[in-house]
Design a protein that fits this description.
With 153 residues, this protein is an all-alpha fold. The chain is 75% helix and 0% strand. It contains 7 helices and no strands. The protein is elongated, with a radius of gyration of 22 Å. The model has no long low-confidence stretch (mean pLDDT 86).
Length: 153
Amino acid sequence: MTRLRTLLIFPVLAATSMYCVTALYALHENRGGETLSRIANLPAPLARTMVLEFQGVTSDFLMLKILTYLGQKLMDAEQLTEGEWQTVYLSLKQVVNLDARFLDPYVVAQMTLPSDAGMVKETNELLEKAAQTLTWDYRPHFFLWYNHFYYLN
C-alpha cells in the first residue's frame, strides 16, 4: 500500500511541477515589459502607513523594480519618454520617503536623471534630502556640487 501511494504521488508532483514551470514561462513571455509598482504612485504618508514596519523591505523592493525597469529599457535599446522619466523620479522619491538612509536611490538619481532626462532640479531635491539625512556621507554634497557646476553653471 505504501509503495503504491509513493508511486502515485510522484507522477502527481511531477505533473504539478511541470504545470507551474510552463505557466510561469508563459506569464514571463506574455508580459509586455517591466512596469513599476503601484506603491510609487501613493502619497508618501499613505505609503508609509500601508507598509507598516516594513518600510525598509518595501523601499528595497521598489528600488529593485526601478532598476529592473531601467535595465529592461536598456536591454531593449528603448529611450524613455518624458513621462517614463517622471515615473522613475516619483518612484525614486517614494523610495527615499520610505527609507531616507538608503543611498542607492540617490546614486541612481544622480547617474540617470540629470544626464539622460535633464531633470537636474528634481535630482537636486533628492540630493538635498540626502545631505540632510546622511550627514556623515560626503557624496550627496559632491553630487550637488557636480550638478551646480556642470548643469546649472
